[in-house]
Design a protein that fits this description.
Radius of gyration: 21 Å
Number of strands: 14
Strand content: 5-15%
Largest sheet: 4 strands, mixed
Oligomer: single chain
Bound molecules: pyridoxal-5'-phosphate
Number of domains: 2
Structural class: alpha/beta
CATH superfamily of the largest domain: Type I PLP-dependent aspartate aminotransferase-like (Major domain)
Number of helices: 12
Shape: globular
Distance between the termini: 25 Å
């Protein structure tokens, strides 16, 4: 039995007639850049996230960059963030000449440790950029307290967390600007690159709308130097077909996570394999199901690969130790929990269409791996 890490075939097969029709509508209308499908999608996304605005752009990476630009982050400013995330979280900061200031993660959730964030605030801190990693929200209530005490804006990297909640509030609605990605592996994936930003603030919305079209509100008159970063009509049309299914897909991921918890516990593997920790009062959307395997991660991974089971490592090198960020001045040992997580974590298949028999197979292979060691 083969178990891929992610397989979109079934999802796309079911939606194929609707997707074909939606793509045809765009082709007939010539609405290739932004256009009516994107506008309609933006309204639907704002309603979904519970924000006043949702603004499409070319990718999640661009969403982060545009958000920091809208907040006027400039050379020499400091932005506090996590080193345990995807590269774009930090490249958005450094592209503007700003300095990433890393706080370490909470080893249970892999998300920013709010106490450490508070310790890193200086008079140069221009923004705080938490990441809702794997689909679970950062302690945003705590972080908002810290940020508002100092009057510092928050930018959520919610690329992995569309529909995730803390105390009933959705990701993207807990900060000045939320940033999302439609990369195909996200819970709401497009058929190419895409992303969007959320905000409740009229002025920020106006600025983001301009920044995605070269900083112009009126064509050929430029108030800022923005980007060319627009969502295309084909993505908008496809995403509108998919959005109504998002909650049921995310619920299915959560149900799959519960099945893993039961299977791993029944197999007596909870010592060898640390399962994901869910905070109270959150909705975790399980973009990834990530376990911790101290000391044996890489061996287990190659064992599973040989058995036809797809896995991945998010992320093998924490961002403070990336070669391109050497100049920032961090060294091994500076952020021990992030470094430990990078050495121990392994993502297992969790996509909505995953079948019970496949999950049983994954767990039985993990059990077999540990048996061979005994
Ligand atoms: C996917 C992702 C991004 C970037 O999104 P793209 O659409 O691929 O540019 C940024 N941050 C995190 C945490 C992500 O997972």
């Amino acid at each position: 039995m083969n178990v891929p890490l992610l397989d979109l075939t079934e999802q796309n097969r079911k939606l194929r007639p609707e997707i074909d029709a939606a793509l045809g509508r765009v082709l007939d209308s010539n609405g290739f850049i932004l256009g009516s499908e994107v506008k309609a999608l933006e309204d639907e996304l704002a309603a979904y996230c519970g924000t006043k605005y949702a603004i499409g752009c070319a990718s999640g990476s661009d969403a982060l960059l545009l958000a920091l630009m809208a907040l006027d982050v400039k050379a020499g400013d400091e932005v506090i963030t996590t080193p345990y995330s995807f590269f774009a979280t930090v490249s958005a900061i450094t592209r503007l000449g700003a300095v990433p200031v890393f706080a370490d993660i909470d080893p249970l959730t892999y998300n920013l440790d709010v106490t450490q964030v508070a310790d890193k605030i200086t008079e140069r801190t221009k923004a705080i950029q938490p990441v809702h990693l794997y689909g679970q929200c950062v302690d945003m209530a705590g972080l908002r307290d810290v940020a508002s005490q100092h009057g510092i804006p928050l930018v959520e990297d919610a690329a992995q967390a569309i529909g995730a909640e803390e105390n009933g509030i959705r990701a993207g609605a807990m900060s000045e600007i939320g940033c999302f990605s439609f990369y195909p592996s996200k819970n709401l994936g497009g058929m190419g690159d895409g992303g969007f930003m959320t905000t409740d603030d009229d002025e920020l919305a106006e600025k983001l709308l301009a920044l995605r079209v070269h900083g112009s509100k009126e064509r050929y008159y430029h108030k800022w130097v923005g980007l060319n970063s627009r969502l295309d009509g084909f993505q908008g049309a496809v995403l509108r077909v998919k959005l109504p299914h998002l909650d049921s897909w995310s619920d299915k991921r959560k149900a799959n996570a519960d099945v893993y918890h039961e299977l791993f516990t029944d197999a007596g593997l909870s010592e060898q394999v640390t399962l994901p920790f869910e905070r109270e009062n959150v909705r975790h959307i399980y973009n990834q199901f990530v376990v911790r395997v101290p000391g044996r991660r890489d061996e287990l991974r190659s064992f599973l690969t040989d058995a036809g089971i797809g896995t991945d490592i998010y992320y093998p090198v924490p961002l403070h130790l990336q070669e391109c960020f050497e100049y920032v001045g961090y060294k091994p040992g500076d952020l021990p929990e992030s470094e430990k997580a990078a050495a121990e974590t392994l993502a297992l298949p969790i996509f909505p269409e995953l079948e019970a028999a496949q999950q049983e197979h994954v767990v039985s292979k993990v059990a077999q791996f540990f048996d061979t060691l005994a």
